[in-house]
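Morning run. Coffee first, then this:
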Amino acid sequence: MIGDMIGDGLKPVAWLVRNYVEADSLALMFGDPGCGKSFAAIDLACCIATGTSWHGNKTTQGAVFYIAGEGQNGLARRFVAWSQHNSIPLAGAPLFVSQRPAQLCSAAAAAEVANAVGGLEAVTGHKPALIVIDTLARNFGGADENSAQDMGSFIANLDAFLRAKWRATVLIVHHSGHADKSRARGSTALKGALDAEYALTKDESGVVRIDATKMKDAEQPAPLAFKLETVTLDGLTDDEGKPITSAALWSVPHVAPAKAGKTGRGRNQTLALSILAELFDERRARLERGGFDANAARVKLEEWRDRLAENGVDRKRFYDLRNTLKDAGRIDIEFGDYVSLVDERPV
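And here it is:
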């Protein structure tokens, strides 16, 4: 009865990050390939694990479990870059990173993840406050993101096996839609289940903006802006003796973006990058199911062209589109007519 609910008085909002991320909630960050969404998730995770203010917003320190879809070496460099950039050590911080993705549409697979988290909790004494899923596509298994049923299973498993057990916040990192960049890719059942949603965009000058597109039970927070600063990692060199770098976010004043002019990235270019990212997601998932290294995923130019045609892009325009993106430094064409996303390579 409602009387039982309010009889002891209403409780204030419990924040993991003041004004931005509630405790015991389901949140999402989404954006185009290369917009900096994984860097933003890492930044948030490190701040919570160390109890560091998140760009002026107080955090509640707690253990973070990061379920990474790929690129553990690149991910490790990003954590080191964050530590170096912020002069905050991560050694000893309650921050745990998976060695492989999980097929969270499957209840059995989600239960395995929960058991692994529970095992770490038993050994370390650290109860999870934040669980990051990076990215949805890499942790969705072979299911269909556009299916309300499959998305419903994914959400139900996150709630039952990860969120409810520890009253933890689950943060999902996801791609934006192909045609509609104002929403996350796939079934709208996802947005309906969220407590908070954040859209990330990156403009031509490199400014990354974070805007709240949903706050279920709290006031809409102010938008934020960042730039990715290159960080030379102390004492690390490659096999040619050259310094190894990564990047970290630093705050800049938020200014509303100017409308794109003739030199801005057009709809077809944005669609092409999004579809190329989707093809890589599919190839990686296929390799993983076969027990192979997901980082070996490759996409042929003709596969990209055919998928674009299925999405309404005239085949005659493909080579102009490809060359424009190559000249802009967004893709590389490799030997054997393979294409790679420059901004999606591990930093």
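The chain has a mean pLDDT of 88. Good start to the day.
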